Amino acid sequence: MSEMNHKTDVAAEQARLLGLVEDLLRVAKAQGASGAEAAISVDRGLSVTARLGRVETIEHHCNQGLGLTVYIGQRKGSASSTDLSPQSIRDTVAAACRIARYATEDPYAGLPDADRLATEFPDLDLYHPWELDADVALALAIQCEAAGRQLSPEITNSEGATVSTHQGVQVLGNSLGFLHGYAGSHHSLSCALLGQRGEDMQRDYWYSVARDAAALEPAAQVGRKAAERTMKRLGGRSLSSRQCPVLFSAEIAAGLLGHFIGAIRGGNLYRKSSFLLDCLGKQVFPAFVHIEEQPHWRGALGSASYDSEGVATRPHALVRDGVLQSYVLSSYSARKLGLQTTGNAGGVHNLVIEPGKLDLAGLLAAMGTGLLVTELMGQGVNLVTGDYSRGAAGFWVENGVIQFPVEEITIAGNLRDMYANLVAVGNDVDTRGNTRTGSLLIANMTLAGN
Amino acid sequence: MNHDTLAVARHMLLEPTGISDADIARVMSELFRGSLDAADLYFQASRHESWQLEDGIVKQGSYSIERGAGLRAVSGDKTGFAYSDQILLPELLQAARNARAIAEGGQQGSVKIANRAMPAPLYADVDPLASLDETAKIDLLRRLDAEARRIDPRVEQVIVGLSGVYEAMLVVDQDGAMHGDVRPLVRLNVSVIVEENGRREQGSAGGGGRTDYGLFIEQDRALDYAREAVRQALLNLQAGEAPAGNMTVVLGPGWPGILLHEAIGHGLEGDFNRKGTSAFSGRVGEQVASPLCTVVDDGTLPNRRGSVTVDDEGTPGACTTLIENGVLKGYMQDKLNARLMGVAPTGNGRRESYAHLPIPRMTNTYMLAGPHDPQEILASVQRGLYAKNFGGGQVDITSGKFVFSASEAYLIENGRITRPLKGVTLIGNGPDVLTRVSMVGNDLELDHGVGTCGKEGQSVPVGVGQPTLRVDGLTVGGTSV
């Protein structure tokens, strides 16, 4: 199923999809749409899992889909299908138009302003197909898991190691004349291991992800890290309730920035369902904090030269010297707020918080006595009020030194206070995701335990 | 007449594609070679619509069609899987070759397709999308908006979402046995933002099930969702800081049954137990809960969101006792894990779609009613938390630690509810939380049909329920120490 291994095949696939998007837009116009936007994506992949040294699953992935939004005057309708046939294109357009006829006129609805659409499409180096067959993938997965299982006799069981590769083409067009497509790839290696000491059983994992397989962490290293993380959790216990500083480790700290993005997203602002209403130009973080979006980084997971409605993305500051510089807006939410789109329909592309000078050990020393959190559980985040209460696991730290693993506790506070009381950003940046951050040290939160 | 569902599923899935029983037999022969233990071919087609109102207008709707087939070959504990968005013979044959590559060699056999008698359907064959005309759907959304705003001038924003799914599936196993199901599903949700003196709070409520939109019209049920959402939001305006630490918790009836889903349900799914990765592994026959607790997973409740006439492997939905009078009785199984553990499948083999492998999943999980009057339970608590409604939850299967987040909670002092508290997360340990259940109410309720469970990247609709429960000691994640 790896027909798209060569650039020529990709070019042909892209040309085919561009033609289908043009068909969709043409049919939409013929059926009475005054404006339309269409997207098609095709993705193929292979995912192989080994458990306890043997193959467990081999999955061949093959997804395709088309999505269409039409406007009839100021009324909007959307439809999608997994079927790319001409009959399906006609049916999908008809379904979208039918919905638009029943929707209410919305003065803010519509395609983006034409002058905002992307006109430059630099090569962002997003496509590195991996000619991986199931046997090679399996060997890698087995190597990954074995390296972790060998680490200690206390590693007693496994949920397996998975090697996965995906590559695909996506195309976007609208009736203002925007039409573009690009190919992308996405590969990952992951491993989850169990450890046991007496009655206590713990699980943890590690993963590596990249657009180019050459950039993946070595398989054995992924397995070893999974095992080390599991081992460190053995012997976890609860704590008594208290107030204390909390250090969010780099691999989970992105969540805190995700809540920040949620709170400055146009949809939550115009619905007045954010704790950061009317904060543009105001101090949200301490003055040492700088947060920006870098959508044009070559080869990065979140990179894109345009957003999900074709608006040009641009590198820009969201927070400078702790002050909120920009919301995160689509054309629609921008119009609702009387502002201009920020090229963020569909989300942010490579969110970066400027690293500080301290590594993890330095942050632990700076914290002195407090909680290092390495896992968060549950959805206890209220973006309307900023109230935050989540299950947590990690390590108790005294005088900058880890004392013992901690579990079955919660940490609680209010995000507005947590942002204002950010003490330090680490230089131990986790580069795996769309958000790049080091560990984040918060001055004080409430820990609830036994 | 039990063949009706299968006939409808065949009509929806096979007729438009031109795929015949002979074609299916050929694909199954390609897929199932002698060295395999099992194989299946799963066809699915669904139509989904959603409508959304906000700012007092119906801003948008969407409609989607999905259609495809998934092919699975199983040898021992090894699984090969491939799928296609196109129900066409060449694509199915290619997917069959990809899926069966898991096993080597083997003789090609021939498979004869045979319709199987279906259990009595648990839900009517109704197309929810066609059960109201578009004007009536929009009118319903507008009435809910008007009702929420009418109740209280502090209501600033009302968002109403209505969705319906009409889905058919057919599954053919290695013996050629064909099962089918036609599954309607509807959902309605109202969420509101209220504002008073610059403080903003939200509330939401909703319901649904395997039926059509009539559910929301009958007895003006939808209007109740709007009223409930406003009530919760207004209550939150009064809510104060919650305490932090271990305390007695009384859980209300119905949706707080998410406790059971997270604390024990996932840990009793067959895959984790076959692999020995669950905190409950190897504990059948042990006392894991107070003798007051009997917990079942019941896929056979008519019209319930989590119900399945047959699961996605063709096994009839069942009511499985998980815990009886506190003793662990058994696990929830799909075919693969049941075979490897030497037990019977329990009708819990479910998948999000043709593009996902079936795995053991819950259906409707609830605790049976006990002897206590709910008022008596509240009156028994000197100081504690009364949690009446919840958001979501999560569990670490291996350590057993689970969380669930209260969205409506009160302080109990001297046996009486005294004041509302802000939403908090509760955390506990699955294998021992039910041992601390000291009172079980006589007021069993099931939730209103809003639950979606995520596992291994797959979402499926589920239900939960319970009577009022007193738990002597859960960690409450408040802010005041």
Explained architecture:
The complex is a heterodimer of chains A (450) and B (481). In chain A, the strands form 3 sheets. Chain A has a 6-stranded antiparallel sheet with strand order 3-2-1-4-5-6. In chain A, strands 7-12-13-14-17 form a 5-stranded mixed β-barrel. A 5-stranded mixed sheet of chain A has the order 10-9-8-11-16, with helices on one face. The relative contact order of chain A is 0.12. Chain A is of the alpha+beta class. Chain A folds into 2 domains: 3-233, PmbA/TldD superfamily (PmbA/TldD fold), CATH 3.30.2290.10; 242-254 and 355-448, no CATH class. Chain A is globular and about 70 Å long. In chain A, a hairpin with a 2-residue loop joins strand 5 (179-197) and strand 6 (200-210). Chain A contains 9 helices and 17 strands. In chain B, a hairpin with a 2-residue loop joins strand 6 (177-196) and strand 7 (199-209). At the A-B interface, strand 2, strand 3, helix 2, strand 6 and strand 13 of A face strand 2, strand 3, helix 3, helix 4 and strand 5 of B.
Structure summary, number of beta strands of chain B: 23
Structural class of chain B: alpha+beta
Low-pLDDT runs of 5+ residues of chain A are: 1-5
Report the major sheet of chain B.
7 strands, mixed
Mean pLDDT of chain A: 96
Estimate the global geometry of chain B from the Cα principal axes.
Answer: globular
Secondary-structure topology with pairs:
The complex is a heterodimer of chains A (about 450) and B (about 475).
Chain A: H1 7-30, E1 35-51, E2 54-72, E3 75-81, H2 86-102, H3 134-149, E4 155-174, E5 179-197, E6 200-210, H4 219-233, E7 242-248, H5 250-263, H6 266-270, E8 291-293, E9 316-320, E10 323-324, H7 331-337, E11 351-353, H8 360-367, E12 370-377, E13 387-398, E14 401-414, H9 415-420, E15 422-425, E16 435-436, E17 440-448
Helix pairs in contact in A: 1-2, 3-4
Chain B: H1 3-13, H2 21-31, E1 38-54, E2 57-75, E3 78-84, H3 89-100, E4 114-115, H4 134-151, E5 155-173, E6 177-196, E7 199-209, H5 214-217, H6 221-237, E8 244-251, H7 258-265, H8 270-275, E9 295-298, E10 319-324, E11 327-328, H9 335-341, E12 349-350, E13 359-360, E14 364-367, H10 374-379, E15 383-395, E16 401-413, E17 416-421, E18 424-429, H11 430-433, E19 437-440, E20 445-446, E21 451-455, E22 458-466, E23 469-477
Parallel strand pairs in B: 4-6, 8-15, 14-22
Antiparallel strand pairs in B: 1-2, 1-5, 2-3, 5-6, 6-7, 8-23, 9-10, 9-14, 10-11, 12-13, 15-16, 16-17, 16-18, 18-23, 19-23, 20-22, 21-22
Helix pairs in contact in B: 2-3, 4-6
